């Protein structure tokens, strides 16, 4: 990653440039952000190619084909301009290193990681081939490692070069060490050629070298690809047969991508790519890089700050023509007899966790105002970032209290319905709802209901509850979408707005970008509020993580910068914007180095959040002054719940405790029995009862008044440690772990009414929210609306 200079434009289309990611024979790729805060990689075609009519035509066809690819582990194009003076395309930015960088820095991957990597990439090839494309340049630098799985980039882009001066008849296009024999010898290449290249990539991942490495140059490598057998001796025995079969010289003898998934991951790619699929050193570096990228502002080009900002991000996930990777595993894309390589758009980023929604009956979070935490953006389906750093996964289990707890994941895409106010740029959560009426006849005991409706997104949703406001359900993803809570129909979508920093309150859904907080009417989607960019003293406000909203203000972590200064973490203090206008209401500085991973809620005109000193902190919503703090023993990101008078924390050896909201005094505490270690789940509170799991395979109800255990209901397996249960009327919905589904527990009889399952065993978790009348359960790329009985 390099800083911008005077030769770079300020913006490309609707995207403001932040840094340069790479440069090569096709053009330049930039790190950029939309006005709505979405981070993308923008590829700009070289001027001399832009004037070639044949190239433009081919480039346009390839962009259209790439847009047709819909796969969880591919890199879809999210925006493009083909008719302007200089064509360009934008893809979502992947917060993670290339496979080349990871292996070069941290060494070969363990066998379990290689299997998961191969299964994910095989799934990606299925999507690419289904769109009528052949990748033709699958190599380690075109594979990015995200927390929730690999991303295959640069699919089909080389085909846009077929008619240009670099790829005349007889010219071999690709990377010599990773080509298939038919490609290396100039013969036609089909999907089986990609399988051969994938096997070469997996061998590199497992050993640190390719199957046909040679010190004698590209020509020698090509000869070895066509005539020699691969070097498989360093592979683990269990992988040798699988990878060897993919490297067969005869394309007909190679397995298909579907068969390869079964050989590498019998339970499927998503099951193999659960939390922890990456080794700890890679995951830790990924977390550090992701935090740095999300903090990036638009610096004055050529300044020391710009240089430092670019150097602070060691991974450059987008490469152009192999230019960003030299030596080692790839050697770049080589066009024998011509200039170097093809372009490389990036893959979807793992979104940041937004705020939770919901209007939980009997809780203090009626507006569903919950925080999003940047520290969880790497979590995918779980708490990878903290676990990688030596922490415990459940400590990042999402925001506490009320309707549910957010946790990060992937992004999603959709089409915009006619008449929606969606902007043209970016991608969003989306899809077409499929309402299913509930059968009128009574169900047998234990039989789950049919969903009231289902909303299948076109891509993967964030692993987080949906936000709920004024009868609209807002899925968490890269874009901002509204779904009618009753019918399941998508009402509007804004594709240029990132919903990864979000909150709901005062009839709006709020999003935080790098320079402002914006509010959109929940029903119409129209922008109706935007925060000031300057404080009363004329200093620049740098917004960060949203902590919540109520009828008076939006609360967030932020930084205040002297006029003209750029670049900040956006987490130096706590700030409130007044909803009556747009100005800063107050700002309170936090201690230097304080962890930005917090859990928070807004209730009764006050802001409550955890800190990294294991305290629960209360601040006045009017002026931000600290009212009190209570030593709960809960880590900064550990969730808590609250009703009108008390907060409830369930953590570590301290067990379950209640703290008064008025002064922070402890009301009661249920300690863990001496010598026991338990993994608690988040709790919720409603109607004077606290619900949660104390580390056993049971759901427990405690009296909110004194902590007395009221009842305990056994469940088949220990519930998910990532999301809280949720009460809707007299049914407590408890998210099971993965394929266990959602348990519906009758709180009057303390028994399971029924269990809703979708038949999928993908390793995803369930995240719950409600409008008080129905449950909205998010799983992978789908939201299910369920009745409470």
Automatic annotation (TrEMBL):
Cross-referenced Pfam families: Pkinase, PQQ_2
Region annotation Disordered: where it falls in the sequence: 299-373, 401-456
Signal peptide region: none
SMART domains assigned: PQQ (SM00564), S_TKc (SM00220)
Origin: domain of life: Bacteria
Protein name per its UniProtKB record: Protein kinase domain-containing protein
Keywords: ATP-binding, Kinase, Nucleotide-binding, Transferase
Biased composition range(s): Gly residues: 325-334
PANTHER family: MITOGEN-ACTIVATED PROTEIN KINASE KINASE KINASE 20-RELATED, SERINE_THREONINE-PROTEIN KINASE YBDM-RELATED
Low complexity bias (residue ranges): 299-324, 336-347, 355-368, 405-426
Residue numbers binding ATP: 43
Sequence ranges assigned to domain Protein kinase in this UniProt record: 15-278
């Amino acid at each position: 990653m390099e800083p911008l200079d005077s030769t770079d434009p300020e913006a490309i289309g609707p995207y403001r440039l932040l840094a340069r990611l790479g440069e090569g024979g096709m053009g330049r790729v930039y790190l950029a952000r939309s006005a709505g805060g979405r981070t993308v990689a923008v590829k700009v075609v070289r001027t001399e190619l832009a004037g070639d009519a044949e190239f433009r035509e081919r480039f346009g066809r390839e962009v259209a084909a790439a847009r047709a690819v819909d796969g969880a582990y591919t890199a879809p194009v999210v925006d493009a301009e083909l008719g302007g003076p200089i064509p360009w395309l934008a893809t979502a930015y992947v917060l993670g290193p290339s496979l080349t960088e990871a292996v070069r820095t941290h060494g070969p991957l363990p066998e379990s990681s290689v299997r998961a990597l191969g299964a994910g990439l095989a799934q990606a090839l299925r999507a690419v081939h289904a769109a009528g494309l052949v990748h033709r340049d699958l190599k380690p630098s075109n594979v990015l490692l995200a927390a929730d799985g690999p991303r295959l980039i640069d699919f089909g882009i080389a085909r846009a070069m077929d008619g240009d001066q670099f790829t005349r008849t007889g010219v071999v296009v690709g990377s010599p060490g990773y080509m298939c024999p038919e490609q290396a010898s100039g013969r036609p290449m089909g999907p089986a050629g990609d399988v051969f290249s994938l096997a070469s990539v997996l061998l590199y991942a497992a050993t640190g070298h390719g199957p046909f490495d040679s010190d004698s140059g590209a020509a020698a490598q090509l000869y070895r690809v066509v005539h020699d057998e691969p070097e498989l001796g360093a592979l683990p025995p269990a992988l040798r047969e699988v990878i060897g079969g993919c490297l067969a010289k005869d394309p007909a003898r190679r397995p298909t991508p579907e068969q390869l998934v079964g050989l590498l991951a019998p339970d499927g790619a998503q099951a193999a790519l659960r939390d922890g699929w990456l080794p700890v050193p890679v995951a830790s570096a990924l977390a550090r890089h992701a935090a740095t990228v999300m903090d990036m502002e638009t610096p004055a080009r050529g300044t020391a700050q710009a240089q430092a900002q670019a150097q602070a991000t060691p991974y450059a996930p987008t490469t152009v023509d192999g230019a960003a990777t030299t030596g080692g595993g790839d050697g770049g894309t080589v066009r024998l007899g011509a200039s170097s390589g093809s372009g490389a758009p990036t893959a979807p980023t793992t979104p940041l966790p937004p705020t939770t929604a919901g209007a939980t009956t009997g809780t203090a979070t009626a507006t569903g105002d919950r925080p999003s935490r940047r520290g969880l953006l790497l979590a995918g389906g779980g708490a990878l970032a903290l676990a990688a750093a030596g922490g415990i996964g459940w400590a990042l289990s999402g925001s506490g209290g009320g309707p549910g707890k957010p946790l990060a994941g992937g992004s999603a895409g959709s089409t915009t319905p006619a008449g929606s106010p969606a902007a043209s740029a970016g991608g969003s959560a989306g899809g077409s709802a499929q309402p299913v009426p509930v059968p009128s006849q009574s169900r047998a005991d234990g039989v789950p209901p049919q969903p009231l409706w289902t909303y299948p997104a076109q891509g993967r949703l964030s692993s987080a509850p949906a936000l709920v406001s004024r009868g609209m359900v807002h899925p968490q993803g890269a874009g901002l979408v509204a779904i009618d809570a009753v019918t399941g129909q998508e009402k509007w979508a804004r594709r240029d707005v990132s919903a990864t920093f979000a909150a709901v309150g005062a009839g709006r859904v709020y999003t935080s970008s790098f320079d402002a907080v914006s509010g959109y009417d929940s029903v119409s989607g129209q922008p109706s509020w935007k925060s000031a960019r300057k404080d009363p003293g004329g200093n620049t406000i740098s917004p960060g993580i949203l902590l919540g909203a109520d009828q008076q203000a939006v609360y967030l972590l932020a930084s205040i910068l002297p006029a003209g200064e750029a670049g900040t973490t956006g987490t130096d203090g706590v700030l409130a914007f007044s909803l009556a206008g747009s100005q800063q209401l107050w700002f309170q500085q936090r201690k230097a180095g304080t962890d930005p991973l917090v859990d928070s809620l807004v209730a009764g005109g006050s802001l409550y959040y955890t800190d990294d000193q294991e305290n629960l902190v209360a601040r006045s919503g009017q002026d931000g002054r600290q009212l009190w703090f209570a030593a709960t023993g809960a880590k900064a990101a550990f969730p808590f719940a609250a009703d009108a008078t008390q907060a409830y924390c369930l953590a570590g050896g301290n067990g379950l405790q209640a703290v008064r909201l008025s002064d922070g005094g402890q009301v009661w505490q249920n300690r863990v029995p001496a010598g026991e270690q338990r993994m608690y789940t988040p709790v919720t509170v409603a109607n004077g009862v606290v619900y949660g799991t104390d580390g056993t395979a049971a759901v427990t109800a405690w009296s909110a008044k004194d902590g007395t255990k009221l009842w305990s209901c056994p469940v088949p397996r220990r519930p998910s440690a990532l999301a809280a249960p949720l009460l809707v009327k007299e049914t407590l919905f408890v998210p099971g772990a993965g394929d266990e589904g959602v348990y519906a527990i009758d709180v009057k009889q303390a028994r399971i009414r029924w269990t809703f399952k979708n038949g999928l065993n993908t390793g995803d978790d369930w995240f719950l929210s409600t409008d008080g009348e129905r449950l909205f359960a998010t799983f992978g790329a789908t939201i299910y609306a369920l009745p409470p009985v």
